[in-house]
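INFO  loader      accepted 1 record
INFO  loader      residues=501
INFO  predictor   begin
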Amino acid sequence: MTDPFGFLKTPRRPVAGRPVQERLHDWHEVYAGQALLPLISEQAGRCMDCGIPFCHNGCPLGNLIPEWNAYARRGDWRAAAERLHATNNFPEFTGRLCPAPCEDACVLALNADPVTIKNVEQAIADESWERGFTVPHPPQRLSGKTVAVIGSGPAGLAAAQQLTRIGHTVAVYERADRVGGLLRYGIPEFKLEKWHLERRIAQMRAEGTKFRTGVDIGRDLDAGDLRRRYDAVVVAVGATEPRELPVPGRELRGIHQAMEYLTLANRVREGDFTAPPLTAEGRHVVIVGGGDTGSDCLGTALRQGAASVVQLDINPEPGDDRPDAEPWPVYPKVYRISHAHEEARGRAGTDPRLFASATLRFEGDASGRVRALHLTEVEPTARRPRPDTEREIPAELVLLALGFSGPERGGLLHQLGLALDIRGNFARDGGFAAEAAQHDAWPVRSRTDGVFVAGDAGRGQSLVVWAIAEGRSAAAATDRYLTGSSELPSPVSAGDRPLVA
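INFO  predictor   done
INFO  writer      dumping tokens
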């Protein structure tokens, strides 16, 4: 602790984003070009260095937050970066994308404003790159063992980097044409400029990790053959099976899954298209779903020049204060405003969200294209339609951001003989080892030898910090399988869940 009275003398002051009207006209990050220092050092000084730092429990990575806060307060960026990277492979990603459950678990949050942990994390990561502290760490020797990682999202990248650094020869297989998974095509540029991703991939290549893009395991290459070629396989394909909205009119043109829309928008930024094949320009847009993906669609539609944007959230509007049913240090359901919501309010003057609202049906025009959406208010708990609340809103582009039901069921599932759990994810034991599908001759599940499941493919859709934590833990499990023991950290087990009341 550098200042025992810092939290009493210094008020919370988050880093301010660029002006709304400025960022609505470009695709740069919200904080791009903003001066983080010395504000960050001042804010890091608010950390109390608690005897029991509950921020550790709020983060599945077990980030050493009080330690790197103390170093950031003193301006020792090398030491701060070392402590930050000790638990997190990609802090420049989490510092930009994570909703920061660590802040809600901060002891200061009991009766005051928490430390701006997320801002400090991003600043340390960026300073580490800027000052040349973040460099490749190739292994000192090779183990002679080979590992295939299927999927290049945050879980797959974290597992690959850990396994490469310990000395195994690792190849990452990605079905898209570029590495990154949803970091590449699911996250808009205004939240994560892709040069951050390219910089990490370059570091991983320098360490020895190999990347194979444009290879869909299960279709282009038999997953069983892949398993026979490598000593171990880590499945980190994410949970990309989108949830549907089975209401009348769903077949109309102009209704799309959110990831289709976001992927095409990101491909424009990558230079694949001069203009988006699917655009919100000049259209009345309705986003069905109130989560982060819906917010990403909102920010994208605003930048494309939508005539109007409405976001439907079936959940009731939360209050400003932490509910009694969700006490500290759990991550509470409170009224939150994303940068995209802030932008929508800056343009239209009102929150774009309609809470406690559900879609009844779509209505089309004579050409078979959607023109309107009929919605209804719903009861808070049962989510049944409330009588006499039906109304129509214009909808020329509808984006379904309803989340994901698990990994896609394709050749990979059958060729590796994987089982599904009750939630539709790839089944695994507590040590991330994949479980085999049951057969009549062997009714008890067994492990699929040498196959491990990491990230959303086994957990279901979750946060980037959970994906990285699972990738690190699955890497430790894989290393233990290959060598009999492992010195790699394992921050979570496959059954761990976020803090709940």
